[in-house]
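Worked example 3. Consider a protein that binds guanosine-5'-triphosphate.
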Amino acid sequence: MSVTSEKEKSIPVYILSGFLGSGKTTLLVQLIEHWQQAGLRPAVVMNELGEVNLDGQVVDAEVPMTEMLGGCICCTVRGDLGLQLADLVQEESPDVIVIEATGAANPMEILDAVTETSLYMRLELKSLITVVDAAHLSGLYQEQKGQTFKLMQEQIRCASVLILNKTDRVGEQEISDLQQLLTKWNGFAPVIQAVRCEVDMDLLLQSGDGVHAYQAAAESDHQEAATEHVHTEACSEHGCGHSHEHHHEHHTPHASHEHVMVYTHYFNQPVNSEAFERFIAGLPRDVYRAKGILSFSDTASRFWFQYAYRESDYMKITPQGDVPNVAVFIGEHFDQAVIRHQLLEMESINQA
Ligand SMILES: Nc1nc2c(ncn2[C@@H]2O[C@H](COP(=O)(O)OP(=O)(O)OP(=O)(O)O)[C@@H](O)[C@H]2O)c(=O)[nH]1
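Given these inputs, the predicted complex is written out as structure tokens:
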């Protein structure tokens, strides 16, 4: 490869990975501030499973942002990533680029797409940062099964640096157990513990700046992930504990998250805030992420709400641009009709 002499001029690229709701956007906002304070011009590629870019609302409107909506960057919209990067570079000449993947993405595929693009553009993949929700991982680790657990494991294995986030939600012992677990799954990546992704940004950006480290981790991950896919499919198809001779190409990223579904609800009427909070608190466990922008019938302001792994959060917001009242629900095999029905009922009560 002939990039060595050009390396100084290449644009650094960071990939933010981590399961749905782990804290990627929280980190993104701080990274942007950090770069802006250093006089740099960052650009963002934002990928969301839903049809609306809600996370974009919390990012400084001045920051150039490419949105890849309605599909996961690692499969359905993967082919576009190279084009989006090329457009961003040509139109905005940023000093640094961050790609925030959907929480359901397998970062290996994004990594492949970025490296492919860097063959013909001056991009340099600096690191793959995976944000881990400490409480969520702890819960899943105790169960030791499920697609979500596997996906989280893949995201951790691919990382060149790990942020063990939401440590406020677990005890001291759990933190130290999780720290050990992360090191066991990925011995290459430094682990930085954090609450709300508040970390020393210089340290974060320097950590894991080792292409060798993440490549080595990623390669072993790829092999293991492929084995796991074979095994899982064999088990579910044949209902037994044996592995059958199924052959899957490496590029079957969907296998790890095709079970993830999204329901987007556009509100026609404002709803009562307390009724909505009760509804969110009572969401089925299979819905593991929800977010949206709402007008309530009993509040003057609009709200940005979030729900991630049994915790919800409401924040007053004045949206940028013309944003509808909308909520996105992401989960595994949940009944969309039930959610829709409950929301419509809330709307109609309020209309009456
Ligand atoms: N308790 C607690 N909550 C946190 C922490 N970090 C982030 N959150 C909250 O977790 C929720 C999800 O955070 P985001 O940064 O939007 O997560 P994300 O990974 O970007 O989510 P997706 O883009 O949907 O995958 C928000 O309500 C955050 O305020 C933390 O350290 N502790």
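Take a moment to read the result before moving on. The chain has two domains: 4-224, 261-351. Residues 18, 20-26, 55, 103, 165-166, 168-169, 195-197, 289, 306, 308, 311, 313 surround guanosine-5'-triphosphate (CB under 6 Å).
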